[in-house]
Amino acid sequence: MSSGPEVNGGVDEPGWDVDPEDEIAPVVEMAGRQLRIWREGAGLRVPELALRLGYSEDQIRKVERGARIPRPEYLDGMDREVGAEGKISAMKEGLAEARYPKRVRELAKLEAKAVEVQSYGSHNFHGLLQTKEYASALIGTRRPGHAPDEVQRLVEARMARHSIFERLPAPALSFVQEEVTLRRPIGGRMVLRRQLEHLLELGRLRNVEIQVMPTDRDDHAGMAGAMQVLKFRDGTAVGRAEGVFNSRPVSEPKQLRIIELRCGIIQAQALSPRESLAFIEQVLGET
Questions:
Q1: Span 109-150, pLDDT tens digits
Q2: DSSP SS3 for 155
Q3: CA 129, CA 152: separation in Å to the nearest integer?
Q4: Are the beta carbons of 186 and 130 closer than 8 angstroms?
Q5: Where are the beta strands (DSSP E) in 111-226?
């Protein structure tokens, strides 16, 4: 039973509860214990804190036992109410990753270790290439649709993966995109224009190659769908391709060779990186 108005986060929204089996659960539990210590140290009871923050008592108890990830505004409000002078607000960065879906965290970890990424995208831009507006619009096309809070969570997770472009030494990143992905106005004309401009900026980075597969190609090794290969410093790799190996990630060398072969042929069939940038500029001018 709530003892105050539920202003900031009184409604249970998806994406904030923690799966006890998730590897991130101990991090959230530790944060919850720290928040309880701060509350008790300030002499505040749960009902009183709930009233001050505008959260339900149940949500505060969930946070303190590690069953729910505290929202950024919850941490800021808690910091203010107990006089933590920024120490609680500083927890936001450490807890941000906890909110991302497990599959996204796993992918981000692989990308963070990769020294080379090869990708072919057939329906939309690769997640590493997407602007925030494009990602939000794209995720919003899902049917049945996500709740707004879930869309925000997925977009934030996707944007966090973009840190790969800031890594040193820089990994080698190569992307082949179908021409249709450059022309489909996901989110509207202006969103597409900003996406194409962003694509040009990335394509000019020394460690990034972006190629376009023209629609009029009469021979195409990627008709089965999207694929990706991530290679690591120790010589191992992981790949995934739609239409083969049940579309699951594989790391066995014989299976990887098939995906790598397809990626190589697709790169040869597509426009060169220089031709592709010129093509993207042309499409931008037409958009």
A1: 899 999 999 999 999 999 999 999 999 999 999 999 988 888
A2: helix
A3: 18
A4: no
A5: 114-121, 172-178, 208-213
Contacts for 7-12 with beta carbons within 8 Å, 24 or more apart?
7/54, 8/53, 8/54, 8/55, 8/71, 8/73, 8/74, 8/77, 9/54, 9/55, 9/59, 9/71, 9/73, 9/74, 10/54, 10/55, 10/56, 10/59, 12/59
For 40-50, letters b (16+ CB in 10 Å) and e give: eeeebebebbb
Question: Residue 3 is encoded by which pair of tokens?
Answer: 């003892």
**The tokens of 281 are what?**
């500029």
Strand partners, 250: 239
108 token code pair: 């981000």
3-state secondary structure of 176: strand
pLDDT digits (tens, 9 = 90+) for 215-261: 999 999 999 999 999 999 999 999 999 988 988 999 999 999 999 99
Rounded CA-CA distance 38/74 in Å is 13
Query: Which of 19, 149, 2 shows the shortest CA–CA distance to 61?
Result: 2
Residue 188: CB atoms within 10 Å = 10
- C-beta neighbour count of 26 within 10 angstroms: 11
